[in-house]
Recover the amino acids of this structure.
């Protein structure tokens, strides 16, 4: 390995949440270091901050929603930021659909009329999924309000304070809110046959100029996924989760593990992107994204070659 590879250092910007588990494992167990990479992990308060950081070059890699990749590439994000060469290079939670959790008094969609729902950003991410679910149930813009509340941790805490009538959540937050008496009103599966959720995203220009760094990063994540799927590592995995999400309610790690590392619903073991799921993201963005744009084919927004190179080195 060259000195350049050993000295490589990148900044990874992520939303807080259990979907970062493979990143935590790769960091704590030295998988990034074995591939010659130092990774500085920065937590973002929201998608605007994240994509401004990527656009400026302060961060080089992001764990983000696939919809954000499209939105900020196409100038449909919440900030006047365009990352024209943004691409997804690895799929993370592409088999678990977000659920609509509502306050205990909300038991049907009609109860949401006139209410405020929390989103990370009103123009990007899962906001478009939520709009589609509400429309399918007969609610139109103006029947409810969407309010930017920040990432999943902020939305989770705000729901417990009674500030919002509902929001979309993945595991473990769905189960945690359910245990507190909140209602699971619906799932995104009601409108989406496939959906690409979180991905690893980069700027293509940076990826091509730093191929050895990106390939090493992806290889470390694949190794981390294999370690997490090994049942013999479960107790150590729980400890890593709890160190990285201090203050989580009891049994949060066990609940999250049951969903994120289930062979049917969990992370794809090799980080494959769900191309049909990306197409569904584009369908929602064509319908609800602003300003209206003619979007490219799904293949314009992802690149498989870096992951394929990482997998070939196993």
């Amino acid at each position: 390995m060259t000195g350049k590879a050993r000295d490589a250092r990148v900044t990874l910007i992520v939303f807080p949440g259990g979907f970062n588990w493979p990143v935590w494992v790769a960091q704590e167990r030295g998988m990034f270091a074995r591939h010659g990479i130092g990774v500085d992990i920065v937590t973002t308060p929201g998608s605007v901050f994240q994509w401004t950081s990527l656009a400026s070059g302060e961060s080089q890699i992001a764990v983000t929603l696939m919809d954000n990749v499209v939105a900020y590439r196409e100038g449909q994000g919440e900030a006047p930021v365009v990352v024209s060469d943004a691409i997804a290079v690895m799929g993370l939670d592409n088999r678990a659909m977000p659920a609509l959790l509502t306050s205990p008094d909300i038991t049907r969609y009609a109860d949401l009329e006139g209410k405020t729902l929390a989103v990370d950003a009103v123009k990007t991410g899962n906001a478009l999924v939520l709009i589609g679910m509400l429309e399918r149930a007969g609610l139109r813009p103006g029947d409810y309000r969407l309010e930017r509340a920040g990432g999943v941790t902020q939305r989770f805490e705000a729901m417990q304070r009674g500030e919002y009538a509902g929001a979309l959540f993945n595991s473990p937050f769905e189960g945690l809110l359910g245990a507190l008496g909140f209602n699971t009103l619906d799932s995104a599966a009601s409108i989406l046959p496939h959906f690409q959720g979180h991905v690893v995203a980069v700027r293509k220009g940076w990826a091509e100029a730093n191929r050895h760094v990106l390939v090493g990063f992806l290889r470390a994540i694949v190794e981390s996924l294999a370690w997490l799927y090994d049942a013999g590592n479960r107790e150590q995995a729980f400890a890593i989760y709890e160190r990285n999400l201090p203050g989580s309610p009891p049994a949060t790690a066990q609940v999250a593990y049951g969903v994120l590392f289930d062979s049917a619903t969990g992370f794809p073991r090799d980080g494959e992107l769900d191309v049909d799921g990306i197409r569904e993201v584009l369908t929602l963005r064509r319908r609800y994204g602003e300003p209206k744009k003619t979007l490219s084919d799904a293949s314009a927004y992802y690149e498989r070659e870096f992951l394929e190179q990482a997998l070939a080195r196993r």
In short: Residues 1-5 have pLDDT under 50 and may be disordered. Residues 211-229 form the longest helix (19 residues).
